[in-house]
Design goal:
64% of the residues lie in helices and 10% in strands. With 576 residues, the protein is of the alpha/beta class. The strands form 3 sheets. Strands 6-9-10-3-11-12 form a 6-stranded mixed β-sheet. A 4-stranded antiparallel β-sheet has the order 2-1-4-5, with no helix packed on it. The chain has a two-stranded antiparallel sheet with strand order 7-8. Helix 2 packs parallel to helix 6, helix 3 runs antiparallel to helix 5 and helix 5 runs antiparallel to helix 10. The chain starts with a helix and ends with a helix.
Length: 576
């Protein structure tokens, strides 16, 4: 946690110094007031000196005004620094996660990453805020209160030697018990977010299988688990306040008893006892403030560790030190003896995959479910890096290229088309912000999306909900294809992007794409044979290996795996 604070509070040193300086002024003023009050009682009231009372009373008013002004300004600078700290940490997590490969995202989990960038940052931000506004004042008041109490009466100050260690011992034991519980609480917040996210994302599946009751029970279990842990934590803290107040009240009684004896013997003026009691209250209030921070600090420490895990994780996919730039922008793809295995997996998903794809050609990839088709195309834009062999774009290994340069050359349409909240136009311009309306309509026309977009009330400015929830699956796929067309890359990768289209729309779209992508390299992953029959090259995958490469006619003669796929989908008349 110290490292996190040091890194992200460094730009706000001036605000921190000003806040601490003003808190020191506030503490000095607060410690000076009881001494002035004692002087009024001992010198003014006891001797009946009204002028002295007015003079010292006026000084007390002035000191109070200074203390109030210092408090307001210190809170301003402290709040400013803490809010900026939270903003910077959230930005750091966001940018770090944005650089993660899919491997790191899978390792942490989406729900956990969201919790770390929201709830965990908030926990630390609140501790920083309370530290700058309250906690820094506590040691000033505590140490200063002890010094000023000793000045009032050394003998009576012996009571502090019992009171302060007793409270410190109790608070230390409390911290030792609560830290593991706070660690468990943050994990259970992750679980709550995960269940809730799955409930919202899979609402259609849940309703289709009549599993609302099951999901409700699952949430109730996660919720009850978090509630039980939180109850155990706050049950411990429920003991804290009565015990602290008990110590505080017993201390006051003891001081009054011993102080009364000293006043009766003439060893101590009554004003000094009043001031001593005030300083004892200030000391105990400092301990109470530290205790209040103690309720927040263990959870913040856990949150800081979770945030550091994210910030200290280096992406497995990154830019090389000296990136290479291909001499040409043609879009040539080469897979050279590529192997890929997921982290921790015993067997590779892809083995000895080699083929080439060039501009003006359509290369199709087909195979049974689980054969590695999507994994294969995910290696092109470096969502994952090959664990063996090499993937080349225009003669350069993709691992030797800057990621932005690589991504600029590839238009990727994923298996699950995703649209961002905004408008039709803002989604289409995602790859080319300068595209004109004419270019957008042209891309929609090619993607067979012009008809339904033109029927929308605001056409290009029609709103799109998060994830494209207000359009159908087929419309979502066509808009995603149009978005890639607006980008005009050298390589188009269609990862089963026609699965939600009917056969007629699929045929019209493929015909239009053939003219539009004539100069580009096209890679199509498909389940339907009808989508890829006329491809220039078909790569057949079987359990991560290439079972055959060729045209449709060639594979029908030479590849048993391809024939099985074709005959499972089409009749002999349709094939002929």
């Amino acid at each position: 946690m110290i490292r996190l604070l040091r890194e992200h509070l460094a730009p706000y040193r001036m605000s921190l110094v000003l806040a601490m300086a003003l808190m020191l002024v506030q503490a000095i003023a607060n410690l000076y007031l009881p001494a002035l009050n004692a002087d009024i009682i001992n010198e003014g009231v006891a001797k009946g000196d009204i002028a002295y009372i007015w003079r010292v009373g006026g000084l007390m008013v002035l000191v109070t005004l200074v203390m109030g002004a210092a408090s307001i300004v210190s809170v301003y600078f402290g709040s400013r620094a803490s809010m900026a700290f939270g903003r910077d940490v959230r930005a750091a997590i966001f940018h770090r996660v944005g650089a993660f490969a899919q491997t790191e995202v899978n390792a942490f989990g989406t729900a956990s990453l969201i919790t770390r960038n929201t709830n965990d940052v908030q926990q630390i931000q609140m501790v920083v805020l309370m530290t700058l506004n309250v906690m820094i004042l506590a040691p000033f008041m505590g140490i200063g209160g002890i010094i000023m109490a000793i000045r009032q009466d050394v003998a009576l100050s012996g009571t502090l030697a019992v009171i302060v260690p007793l409270m410190a011992l109790f608070l230390g034991a409390l911290a030792y018990r609560t830290l593991p519980l706070f660690t468990a609480m943050q994990r259970k917040v992750d679980r709550i977010n995960q269940v809730m996210r799955e409930r919202l994302s899979g609402v259609r599946v849940i309703r289709a299988f009549v599993r609302d009751t099951f999901e409700s029970r699952r949430f109730e279990r996660a919720n009850a688990d978090l509630t039980d842990t939180a109850t155990r934590v706050f049950r411990l803290f429920a003991l804290m306040w009565p015990m602290l107040l008990g110590v505080m009240n017993l201390s006051t009684v003891a001081i009054m008893w011993f102080g009364g004896h000293r006043i009766a013997s003439g060893a101590m003026p009554i004003g000094n006892l009043t001031a001593f009691l005030t300083y004892v209250v200030q000391i105990l209030m400092s301990v109470m403030m530290a205790t209040f921070m103690l309720t927040m600090l263990p959870r913040a420490v856990v949150s800081a560790n979770r945030i550091r895990e994210v910030l200290d994780t280096e992406p497995t996919v990154g830019d090389p030190v000296v990136p290479l730039v291909p001499t040409e922008k043609r879009g040539c793809l080469d897979f050279r003896d590529v192997e890929f295995r997921y982290p921790g997996a015993e067997d590779p998903v892809l083995q000895h995959v080699s083929f080439s794809a060039g501009p003006g050609e359509t290369t199709a990839v087909i195979g049974s479910t689980g054969s590695g088709k999507s994994t294969l195309v995910n290696l092109m834009p470096r969502f994952y890096d090959a664990t063996g062999g090499a993937v080349l774009v225009d003669g350069v290994d993709v691992r030797d290229m800057a990621q932005e340069d690589l991504w600029a050359r590839i238009g990727f349409i994923p298996q699950r088309a995703f649209l961002f909240s905004g408008t039709v136009a803002s989604n289409l311009r995602y790859g080319n912000e300068d595209a004109s309306d004419e270019e957008l309509w042209h891309a929609l026309r090619v993607a067979q999306a012009e008809s339904f977009v033109s029927e929308m009330p605001e056409q290009l400015e029609s709103p799109i909900a998060q994830g494209g929830a207000n359009v159908s699956g087929g419309q979502r796929q066509r808009l995603a294809i149009a978005r890639a067309l607006v980008k005009r890359p050298e390589v188009y990768v269609f990862d089963d992007s026609f699965s939600a289209l009917d056969f007629a729309t699929d045929a019209r779209l493929r015909a239009a794409l053939k003219d539009e992508t004539r100069q580009a390299t096209v890679v199509v992953v498909a389940q339907r044979v009808g989508t890829i029959m006329r491809a220039d090259r078909i790569v057949v995958l079987d359990q991560g290996r290439i079972a055959g490469i060729g045209t449709h006619d060639e594979l029908m003669e030479t590849c048993e795996t391809y024939r099985e796929i074709v005959y499972s989908q089409m009749t002999e008349e349709e094939i002929a």
